[in-house]
Specification:
heterodimer, A: 458 residues, mainly alpha, two-stranded antiparallel ribbon, two-stranded antiparallel sheet, 6 strands, B: mainly alpha, Formate dehydrogenase/DMSO reductase fold, 14 helices
Amino acid sequence: MDTLLLSRIQFGANISFHILFPTITIALGWVLLFFRFRFARTGAQQWMDAYMFWVKVFALSFALGVVSGITMSFQFGTNWPGFMETVGNVAGPLLAYEVLTAFFLEAVFLGIMLFGARRVPTWLHLTATFLVAFGTTMSAFWIIVLNSWMHTPQGYELRDGIVHATDWWAIIFNPSLPYRLTHMLLASGLTVAFLIAGVAAFRRLIGDRAKTTATQLRVGLGLAALLIPLQIVAGDMHGLNTLEHQPAKVAAMEANWDTGPNVPLVLFALPDEDTRSNRAEIAIPNGASLILTHRLDGIVPGLNDFVAEDGTVLHPPVAPVFYGFRIMVGTGFAMLALSWLGMILIWRRGVDHLPRPYLMAATAMTFSGWLATLSGWYVTEIGRQPWLVTGVLSTKQAVGDVAAPLVMTTLIAYLAVYALLLAAYIAVIFHLARRAAAGKTPAREEPRQAPVGAIPAE
Amino acid sequence: MMTLDATTLPMIFATLMGVSILLYVILDGFDLGVGLLFPFATPTERDRMIASIGPFWDANETWLVLAIGLLLVAFPAAHGTILTALYLPVAIMLIGLILRGVAFEFRAKAPLSQKPNWDRAFFAGSLMTALSQGFMLGMYIMGLDWTGGHALFALLTAGALAVAYSFIGAAWTILKTDGVLQAKAVTWARGGIWGLVLGMGSVSLATPLVSPRIFDKWFSFPEILTLAPLPLISAALIGLLWYALRHLPTASDRFAWFPFVAATGLMCLGFAGMAYSFYPFIVPEKLTIYEAASSPESLRIILYGTCVVLPVILGYTVLAYTIFRGKATSLSYD
């Protein structure tokens, strides 16, 4: 494998590992604020129990997000020096604002949020919780501004091959930003909804009848049932936006080779770039035309339009985009089914009488948000290839001159660390759930002992 | 009135970046130092050492993100050159930072039987981070050329920085704890001060010797007179430290703050000397800050945000340190 491919896999591995944790912390911050407010309003213990349990998961996820995020900012330099050299004038300020407005806000108030409840007044603790949630969301905003600009760049001019910013308003509110941001924030909400519901269902399964598990099931499933229809609409709008600005990506998502009307919706196929056709195709006639143009005979772009006269392929690799899209959509519909079925069951039978198979299904879907989020990001990022910044900078131009074996070495090291940490993370969440179920409530589990060591007379 | 143009802006950003690096080295330095001292502490002492840095480490590490972010956004050309040249040590540092950062959380939340493993990961992560940062410092001083001699020098600075971090970590522990642990930290600091003298001394001597340009900057008249306070104050601080460590811990805990403040002072002095040596170069002997800087329009945009946000950041950093002042007690989420 060459340096370009290895660097891409390495960046992909790093950013995939990283995004798992912000996806949780962005929405979990707001959910924690909600738990905290409900406790302040009602005084009911189950809300505090929920807060105490999930604040630990928040702290853990936050730590993993921070350390894996640091890796990202270094990777720009170590592996992709061409990126900042070419588009640094745009990417730089956006990244700087991310660090300045968001990162510090989170990092500093996190200490007060986690450990300061007894040291600061309630209003300050609530404010700290709010600022952490707000900071996480702002962090997502700036990063998605930059990412969206890389997909649909505007507000710049090229001088001697270097991008110079001309209109910051146009750069920030570039055409794909509203859709991508909405799609990602909803994805975060759904990830957290299924995480909370899944862990609560697991606690029920192992015999935890505490009131807080019922509350958490209701909150998790209710949030999921509320957000998933919104997400389907937002996803559809994002797709239409992509059709307008990045037609090659949509052609790859649909595995459609020839531009034309009455394009079928391919449910399954084995896209083959050598023969430039699909094998084993199962399709619904006119489906893609209907979804993308809302007309049976609407024109849908085909991949063959994105091949240069000399044979250079200017569209993304088809198979990963095609499959990634199907995994994301499939997971989305499974989420719809589980959450709405759950709502009906809770309404008809009550949250305490959810059948075991249902609880097992909810537990199995604990991390379904991760699956959908990752596959969605693969669709959009691989779908941008061969460009790093659409029409401005190709991925190949940006890669750094590092020896392939060296990249291979660090890639293996990163993968080993990530696999270990991911396993530990999931194990710890279920360990915490078992401990909570065994009656050791999070509040009691860390003993309030006197400072260790003899204190000299003062 | 100073105008914000292609001469002043790179200087402003170089200063901001320098301050971020300095703050990082001091603040995360004591976090990493505490990690490096882990093998010498008992399991209960470790809990208390973790508690002393728990509320801060995350924000401390963020100064590194700001520093590398400023390098990235303000000096994009230098960012690529420096980081590709330091590819391997950077990767080792990143893995170290990951292990160190997650160990904080895992050691408290994983099953008790796994705690010793996460303690080991905490130490290993701190060690990897400290050594690779020291190594990068050495390679940077040597102009980022990979030769056997330069790598040897970089190994020396790697050891020196690890010792310096352990020293400030021990000083922090003296400040934030009491009793047996505090007394133990004093002995750690007594052991570390020799390494500190050796490390700072060798780096200070080697830097002018490898670069005639830096030699001229220091040893010509009248610069040598204006610069003289730097080594003199350093020597005085080390003398005072040595004296203080012989008399600590005191009965009423007076002067427990002194080792930490003195270590901070030493790091500031060392950093000032280094900054003076390298200015105006950002990639030693190859690229000046003026050549590497982004366009003035982009720098101005970043500067406006920085001017608004930096005072706020400093303000609530002080707030966090005020809330968690005093001796460290066990941390809990309520």
